[in-house]
Amino acid sequence: MNQTKMSKNNTLCIAEWQSFGTDDIQEVIADKSEKKAQKIFSELQNFANQKGNFDDREGNHIFLTPYRNNRLKARNFVGLIQTKSGFCLEILPKTFCTAKNSDGFAIKNCVCSSQKSTHPLTPSATNLTFGEGEQEKAPPLAGGVGEGYGASQNGVDCHANKQNDSTKSQQCQVCQAKQILLNMLRTLRTSPFKQSHISNLKIHRFPLLEVFAIMFLDEVERLIKRGIKSDYVVREENRTFLKGKLLFGENLKRNFAHKERFFSASDEFIADIAPNRLIVSTILFLSAQGFSPRTSGRISQARFIFADIRPSKSIDKDFALCPSSRHYKDYELLLAWCKIFLRRKSFMPYQGGDKAFALLFDMNKLFESFVAWHLKRASGGKYVISTQESRKYLLEVGGARKFQIKPDIVCRKSDNGGNNVVFIADTKWKILESSESNNYGIAQGDLYQMFAYLAKYECENGFLIYPQIGEIGASEIEDTKAPQDFTHKHFTYKAKSNLPNQNPHKLQILLFNLRNPSEAANEILAQINAKSL
């Protein structure tokens, strides 16, 4: 991995499906060098051109694809790609419509320039809410390094107004998209994001790589407060005194002419163990990145505390040596972060890990996880919410089941053994159109799929859930406006099944409010509770 220091002007923010070229990169780099911009773009092209080992579908073209006029275009994966030269491309969710096209943001980075910048080391007095009712502050390390940040992105404080504390506040599109992405990452089940206590920071003002570094450092500081683990390790050394067990063969070989020495093996209770070595290696990796002064200071303090522990000489070997006992439970999240940074373990496999560092997420899966998480939270235990359930098949041919169906979300009552399906939902990360002439952009196949789910599960109620992007029908849509009932009340399809003794299926198309997901989830469950579909 490249060790070049990154400046705060070394990041380009784009939206999914947005294209970019050398001119966009040149605009955001500090020295505006065309030659440097061309080199960075070439590195990103090399990343995009990496092929899969066995299947072309595994290549990096699923993340970035060549586009017209010597440009590259992002697809439906969000996250970051850092090149060997240290330049970082951030791909954010497209959380806003544009009036005439779907190219993405009209801006390249945060432009909340109407607010005054605060000093990079000034603690913030407010919290960023990552889920209602969860305002826990990360415990600061000695000296206050764990306190909130007042740093700005690209020299600008997007939130000088302390009343602006949510995605509803006066943020630019980039800040809002990044905050929504972080909210979604928090709902992933098998990831270190789920347990990260990041509600104390206006963290979306930072480049994504620094955001992830801050999450890692928070866990490091928690470990330090609880105590760095030590363990007994067998150490073989050629000593001037006898300690432990004398290794006769090795001693004879090494000390034939040095009778005053003893080559022996002894059990040492030390902190230089595999998990700690991996943490040190991750700290060293992050120290080579040009983060804000406050984050860099936290990294330096962590390096000082772990100074007596060597970095890992063999990453894979040390991961294999990491114990999984309860004694090391405090290390679980930290080691997950270490895998991301040291093994380049992205949540989507990519090719050419030696050419770039990438951390990418499928927006379809992120949106599904986001909706399901808030439905579970809103249900309060009254319902059992399952995702990607694979119990049913569409057909049975000669006793063999064919065409397995996997609805995104299945909701059952929890008080009857989980047999009664209350509703089925499918999530679609797609921006609906404001024009009724094309059925608002709803795919016919999606409706067929939902009615197949409802028929096989003998379920009356179904939801096809799309994201509420910006405000459909608001002033930013200049050419056409969606009907008022589409924006607020949504609309419902009803169809009768040909199967006997089945009630008509009711399929509701609705928009899920990304800025107030709890309200959106409560709305769905309220309709189920009131049987108002």
TrEMBL record:
InterPro entries: McrC
Source organism phylogeny: Bacteria, Pseudomonadati, Campylobacterota, Epsilonproteobacteria, Campylobacterales
The protein's name: McrBC 5-methylcytosine restriction system component
Pfam entry (one): McrBC
